[in-house]
Amino acid sequence: MTLAVLTQADFDAWVIQARRFTLQGRLPDYIPQLAQVDSRLLAAQVLAETQTLAAGDVAQPFVLMSVIKPFLLLYLLEQVGAERVFQQVGMQPSDLPFHSIVQLKADHSRPRNPMINSGAIALTGLMPKASGSDRCAAFCKWLNDLAHTQIELDQNALNSVRSLPNETNRAIADLLVQSDLLDRSDLALDTYNQLCCLSGTIADLAQLGLLLAKPHPEISHLHQQTVSALMLTCGLYEVSGIFAVKVGLPMKSGVSGALLAIVPKQGVIACYSPAIDRIGNSVAGLFLVEKLAQELKLSVFC
Ligand code: GLN
């Protein structure tokens, strides 16, 4: 079966079922702006073939947080090539939380993969341009031009993130400087924070996903494959393996409650629901993607 057979009526019904799961999650309390949103929000969009299905709170903008990580990887694969990128980060899954520094210390070298904080922070060192703002603006323009989206920096969210001590990410950046993977930890952290605060609607997230799901005249197919494989193995942090079995699709989550699932060669499922589980994945979003994948037999392994 394919994503294209999904009807608006079934989609609406499953989104209503998913909304119950918002009660099972919690808002991340470590970023003040994210702690203040309505935890019952839920928006979802499916893009497949010529079909667009949308349901829920579709007008609600949200910050992408870690859902930006696969796109940072794609950008750098395109800008500087795979050889340079994978000198900076590995391709191995991690069974530790997204902000862990334990493996970084133990491995004395590259972060395990680009889907965790250490990997993305390390990758900022490869971005063209000298300041965090210029780097973020160039990256944002690249994405908007290619995906026909309108994502932009949410300055309030950035102020909120900047108000935090941010000790863990700072420690990660410092360790990366010690390993000669970064020149300046403050620049890396500022760039990373700005990237995480890029914001859009569910339609923007779905459009971004198409950059990975379908052939694109300006993006290498090999780079799409590389990013998708790393999403499947690492995109949901320490539960990536479990969801590779249960869902079988490349996915990426962010602590804002954004969740993107790629259905290779077919389309995308984008969700936003800010109540997250203890790993940092949207509870209602995961329910919805799992439901769609099982009902429509979307696993890449079927
Ligand atoms: N900015 C967030 C952080 O570094 C992103 C993490 C996430 O979305 N999982 O903590």
Automatic annotation (TrEMBL):
GO terms for biological process: glutamate biosynthetic process; L-glutamine catabolic process. GO terms for molecular function: glutaminase activity. Signal peptide: none annotated. Keywords: Acetylation, Hydrolase. Pfam families: Glutaminase (PF04960). It catalyses: L-glutamine + H2O = L-glutamate + NH4(+). Transmembrane segments: none annotated. Homotetramer. Belongs to the glutaminase family. This is Glutaminase.
